[in-house]
Write a structure and sequence with these properties.
Elements (H helix, E strand, L loop, with lengths): L17 E3 L2 E3 L19 E8 L9 E6 L11 E4 L5 E2 L1 E8 L5 E8 L9 E8 L10 H5 L4 E6 L6 E4 H7 L7 E2 L3 E9 L11 E10 L3 E10 L10 E9 L2 E11 L3 E10 L9 E4 L1 H6 L14 H9 L33 H9 L2 H13 L8 E2 L4 E2 L43 H7 L2 H16 L3 H4 L12 H17 L5 H28 L15 E2 L1 H16 L3 H14 L20 E2 L13 H10 L15 H15 L3 H11 L8 H4 L25
Helix pairs in contact: 5-6, 8-10, 10-11, 10-12, 11-13, 12-13, 12-15, 13-15, 15-16
């Protein structure tokens, strides 16, 4: 587990009043808000990064993930870091994903700052320029006298003991995740002998081992029971422990480890002693949004202390540390209702981005670890990637898929307690991966994203294809494409699964774009909604269009021309539903739970005018009228999210008019204080706070 998750983080104090477009709102009393990150002030400056001191000594290496806007860090340009006193601090950037122009997109940033007292905040500036001369880390010297051992043993079986550092030394240095003067990290992947885990052949060890200049040794050790399509796979039974520098860092078991799941913990040691927690990083969230890394969350209003407390409280569960636990993730994924885990990101991730608070970070990172417990990990050892439809064109992971080649060789164990559903799946890994650069979280993102394809019934998906929009629920299409887009954007070049998912994402957006002429003809003046399976004959849930719009907007912000064309087309419906009052459709119904979209007995013949939609919505008692009785959930927040995204991405007068009307309309739960802390509290760029032109902040 995170070696620092048991620490008691200090609260963050509220800051200045925030102004959102069309409505001013003071942060509620007791709200928690992130301190503003300073602005670039000199040529070559890119973005600020705040560090919060933990009392660790000077030179303690901080490792975080970081995203960059296109062109900010051109190919071949090094990164340097300026400290609060104007002096440069030792740094290292390992870039693993690039923009189409070759500039850095995502990387792992390491820096060795001066000592920061506990709670002290200091600002650092990331700068483009030649890297400062530094000797490479002496790996051999750093490992001298050190030890890292993993032991796995089945009850009554033969124990298996792995010397992780010997395996590290034998690993190809050219494939390092980190390699520089401050940190070196390499991945070890080994099959676990069946005799040590109850006889199954599907378990493997995946360990990311790192040494740092400050003398610390880090092991991110995962036992992944995920090898698919191989005889002998199934539930593993074993106990495990990890020894670092001769000290027991982890012990667990006996475990029953279901197939297609995994669990892991990040462990560290400092020459036989517990490590000092490195300073905590706080990113410039608006810059990350500009880079396409995260949604543009509202950092103005602050998150109510009660909301943050609820999020942080998840980590107090006595079962939090248990391997293969859920950590607050909903196991019955088809469950409906206002869930904190469904959206462009989860609520803990959104609160982490909005506040920078370490308590939310602990929960978000913990749930990213716990996503390994979800049985959507199907590893193909023959391709060194996650199962794909190129090799298995008719594969369906549902039990109804049968036996290979149409189904899994071993079915998902119902005893695991998980019920999977693409229409209600959370994205548990993207934000934690972006903010930490932790490679295990990329594994989680890629595994879930690949499952979204092979978990889809092949008939609508297509034989050997990956169509996730045709004949499906729109909410399922929205969240499946969210996963494909995030994985396609984040995965390194030449990653087998990443390349596969990049192709699948592009194919899906091209397919949707190609349907626009026919859909426009069929939908008439109210065109702009994605057809799909809704469950209620002749009715359309506008909020599912909002789900899809969030995915389309984020793909468009990342540069997808097809997704941008789809969003441009959707604007006619997304904005028009609040502007069609003069055409017979009540604007208040724009965020109703359902609106009538076609005759109940002829769902393939949609109404082609706002007047017909409005009349049928009222006749079926689905209308809000002049009130909001049919909008009692988070439907208003979802609509406001869509309008915010339209205002940023398309920026049309029509989008602005709809946003301005709706933000003042008084729909339930849309006031700034009511939506604060929601994973849907996304704002347009012009409403986001700019950075502050200061060099840092004193200890508080």
């Amino acid at each position: 587990m995170n070696p620092f998750s048991s620490l008691s983080p200090r609260p963050v104090l509220p800051r200045r009043a925030a102004l959102a477009l069309g409505a001013a709102a003071l942060a509620p009393a007791g709200a928690v808000a992130a301190p503003a990150v300073p602005c670039p002030t000199a040529a070559g400056d890119i973005v600020g990064l705040l560090l919060e001191g933990t009392g660790a000594p000077a030179g303690t290496v901080v490792v975080v993930g970081h995203a960059f806007r296109p062109g900010d860090l051109p190919r071949g340009t090094g990164l340097r870091v300026r400290g609060p006193d104007g002096r440069e601090v030792p740094s290292q950037l390992d870039v693993f994903a690039t923009h189409p122009d070759g500039s850095a997109r995502l990387g792992v940033l390491s820096l060795a700052p001066p000592a920061l007292g506990r709670g002290q905040e200091k600002a650092f500036m990331l700068m483009a320029g030649g890297e400062a001369a530094a000797s490479p880390l002496d790996v051999a010297g750093a490992l001298t006298g050190r030890g890292a051992v993993l032991e796995v043993e089945a009850s009554g079986g033969a124990p298996w003991r792995v010397d992780l550092l010997s395996a590290f030394r034998a690993t190809d240095a050219a494939a390092s995740w980190q390699s520089g003067p401050l940190a070196v990290q390499r991945r070890l992947t080994l099959p676990v002998p069946p005799a040590s885990v109850g006889g199954v052949t599907s378990l493997r060890l995946v360990a990311d081992v790192a040494v740092r200049r400050d003398g610390t040794l880090w092991v991110d050790a995962w036992l992944r029971n995920d090898i698919a399509m191989r005889p002998g796979g199934g539930t593993a039974s074993y106990a495990a422990r990890v020894l670092l520098d001769g000290r027991e860092a982890l012990r667990t078991g006996p475990l029953r480890h279901w197939q297609y799941t995994g669990w892991g913990r990040l462990l560290a040691v400092d020459n036989g002693r517990p490590v000092a927690e490195p300073p905590r990083a706080r990113h410039d969230v608006n810059y990350l949004a500009d880079a396409g890394a995260v949604p543009r969350y509202n950092t103005e209003t602050g998150v109510p202390a009660g909301v943050l407390g609820q999020v942080a409280g998840l980590a107090s569960d006595p079962r939090w540390a248990a391997p293969l636990g859920t950590r607050g993730i909903r196991q019955d994924m088809p469950a409906t209702g206002g869930r904190s885990d469904i959206g462009p990101s989860t609520q803990p991730q959104a609160v982490w981005l909005m506040t920078g608070d370490h308590r939310a970070a602990i929960v978000a990172m913990g749930q990213a670890e716990a996503s390994g417990s979800v049985p959507w990990h199907m590893w193909d050892a023959s391709t060194n990637g996650w199962l794909d439809v190129k090799k298995w064109p008719r594969l369906w992971t549902d039990a109804r898929g049968g036996s290979p080649p149409t189904g899994l060789m071993q079915q998902i164990a119902t005893e695991s307690g998980w019920q999977l559903d693409s229409a209600h799946q959370p994205d548990l890994a993207t934000v934690p991966f972006v903010l930490t650069g932790r490679r295990a979280f990329l594994d989680e993102l890629l595994a879930q994203s690949a499952w979204n394809i092979i978990g889809q019934w092949p008939d609508p998906r297509g034989n050997g294809e990956a169509n996730l929009v045709r004949y499906t629920q729109v909410r399922g299409a929205a969240w499946s494409l969210r996963q494909l887009d995030n994985a396609a954007w984040a995965a390194p070049a030449r990653d087998p699964t990443g390349d596969y998912l990049r192709g699948a994402a592009a194919t899906n957006w091209a397919w949707v774009r190609a349907q626009i002429p026919d859909w426009t003809r069929r939908q008439g003046e109210a065109h702009g909604w994605i057809p799909g399976e809704y469950g209620t004959p002749g009715a359309l849930p506008p909020w599912q269009q909002d789900y899809f719009a969030s995915t389309a907007a984020h793909a468009a912000r990342r540069g997808s021309a097809d997704a941008r064309a789809v969003l441009d087309w959707m604007e006619n419906f997304l904005a028009g539903r609040f502007l069609a009052g003069g055409r017979g459709f009540s604007p208040n119904d724009g965020c109703a739970y359902l609106i009538a979209i076609s005759p109940e007995n002829a769902p393939q013949s949609p109404y082609t005018t706002w007047a017909a939609i409005g009349e049928a919505t009222r006749a079926r008692n689905l209308s809000n009228g002049n009130g909001w009785s049919k909008s009692g959930g988070d439907y208003g927040q979802l609509a406001l999210q869509s309008l915010s995204l339209l205002l940023e991405v398309t920026g049309t007068p029509r989008a602005r008019e709809a946003y301005t009307w709706f933000v003042r309309a008084g729909a339930p739960f849309t006031a700034p204080a009511q939506r604060a802390g929601s994973q849907f509290d996304i704002v347009p760029r012009e409403a986001a706070e700019a950075c502050r032109p200061s060099r840092g902040r004193a200890s508080r």
